Amino acid sequence: MAAIGDVETLRALYGHPNPRSAKKVLTALDQHCRRFIELSPFTVLSSTGPDGLGDITPRGGEPGFVTIVDDATLLLPDRPGNNRIDTLVNILGNPGVGLLFLIPGVDETLRVQGTAEILDDTDVCHRFAVGERAPKTVLRITVREAYLHCAKAFMRSRLWDPAARIDRAALPSMGEMLKDQLALATRGETQAEMIERYKETLY
Question: What is the mean pLDDT of residues 45-72?
Fold first, then answer.
């Protein structure tokens, strides 16, 4: 099995994109991109680690949790997590990021590429407070590219189709999986216990 190692071989295999696909990349957010972000409660954020490996993390909130400052600037609050802060460390070394915005029930997605910087300004962070809890930092993302992505992947996966849903019981709880992976002697946290614990630390 030979690995492909050059663009010419890839192009010979795949051909070239049609003109519409090649031209659809915007350098700023238009009204359709802005509306998509306003309706989106979920995005996947990508960055690159110091080892050169790609990294991705899910981010979610109420629709519009990513704030549009202007056609070239987004603000994304960093909600409480596991404190690994992989993405934030990655951004310190390489500010390039990508965002994939999803809207439940919509098979198209929005892709945004740009650069990010980490803000800890009190006024900015408190703009994103939920109750008395404000994020410790907010990402300011400068948009370099934005474009709508076709529905094929979601059509193939039937992601939003209720008939395609998998029963959660098909997998052990995350606590049980971590117990096995880390060879822990303690009982694995049940799914119900995990959800209750998460509810206390969502914001």
Answer: 97
Dihedral sign (CA 150, 151, 152, 153): positive
19, 119, 130, 147, 179 from 203: Cα distances, Å: 44, 18, 7, 30, 26
Opening angle at CA 110, ends 160 and 166, nearest 5? 20
75: three-class secondary structure by DSSP: strand
Give domain limits for the chain: 18-161, 166-203
3 state SS of 141: strand
83/64 Cα distance (integer angstroms): 24
pLDDT averaged over the chain?
95
What is the pTM for the complete model shown? 0.94
For 18-161, which CATH class? mainly beta
- Name the pLDDT band for 19 (thresholds 50, 70, 90): confident
